[in-house]
Design a protein that fits this description.
The chain is mostly beta strands and about 140 residues long. The protein is built from 2 helices and 8 strands, in the order H-H-E-E-E-E-E-E-E-E.
Length: about 140
């Protein structure tokens, strides 16, 4: 389930039909704006999973929060944070192609409260500092 939010981010320009106009609009702003939005979707296979949350994107960087999981990506490193379990997984950020196989499993994609903001030099929202965590946290570095 932790990767499901990453899948949404990777598939924004790939998801078809009913949301195409909105996704095309988002794709047109990816290189020029910081984008904030709320999302909801269902992954249909193998068993339906409904996910929703908020997403902040700027270029190759993103922050997604929803369903109790937080994902931060600075364009090269991705931190998947589960505050309830006190776990962090650190991975090398992958390309969109690695998630393309999931696009046919997305249903009921809804993107609301889309806001286009000026690009900022402050990239701190896309970084997670594991040094600030106490000893109760489990940090797994998979890079």
């Amino acid at each position: 389930m932790k990767k499901c939010l990453v899948i949404l981010i990777a598939l924004l320009p790939l998801t078809a039909a009913a949301q195409q106009h909105t996704l095309e609009e988002l794709a047109a702003h990816l290189g020029t704006d910081r984008i904030s939005l709320q999302y909801a979707f269902t992954i249909a296979q193998p068993a339906p999973v409904k996910l929703s949350g908020v997403l902040l994107i700027q270029g190759d960087c993103y922050q997604a929060k929803g369903n109790g999981v937080e994902i931060y990506c600075d364009g090269t490193t991705r931190w998947t944070v589960d505050p309830a379990s006190r776990e962090v997984y650190i991975e090398t950020a992958g390309d969109i192609e690695e998630f393309a196989l999931w696009q046919d499993d997305l249903e009921d994609l809804s993107l609301t409260q889309v806001r286009y903001l000026p690009v900022s030099d402050d990239l701190s929202p896309f970084f997670f500092d594991t040094a600030a965590l106490d000893a109760d946290w489990v940090v797994t570095d998979l890079r």
